[in-house]
Specification:
about 100 residues, alpha+beta, three-stranded antiparallel beta sheet, 4 helices, about 25% strand, globular
Length: about 100
């Protein structure tokens, strides 16, 4: 992955995948992620819904469409892009161009 931050349009085309070595454990509050030298992350249920849709095949736009159908939330777009950027920066996901 190129280290520059993609703009929103470019981010929507990207295909996220879980980084090798990332482990996830479901908890009452959502989930806990850890792996290697990565920070431990606690996800609420909204973040876990995104994580569950990351499969290495769907684009960020595909994930947004799936979430919008389920959540009908106006801020899905903003939250999804923030989530993707944070997880890519922390090393928990890899973003690749299609």
């Amino acid at each position: 992955m190129d280290n520059s931050k993609p703009d929103d349009t470019a981010m929507l085309r990207m295909i996220p995948a879980h980084a090798e070595g990332t482990m996830m454990r479901r908890e009452q509050f959502g989930a806990m992620l850890a792996g290697g030298n990565m920070a431990i992350l606690n996800f609420n249920h909204d973040a876990l819904a995104i994580w569950d849709l990351i499969d290495g095949n769907r684009s960020v736009a595909d994930i947004e469409t799936a979430l919008a159908e389920e959540y009908k939330a106006e801020d899905v777009h903003r939250f999804l892009l923030e989530f993707m950027r944070y997880c890519a920066t922390s090393g928990h996901i890899i973003l690749r161009n299609p």
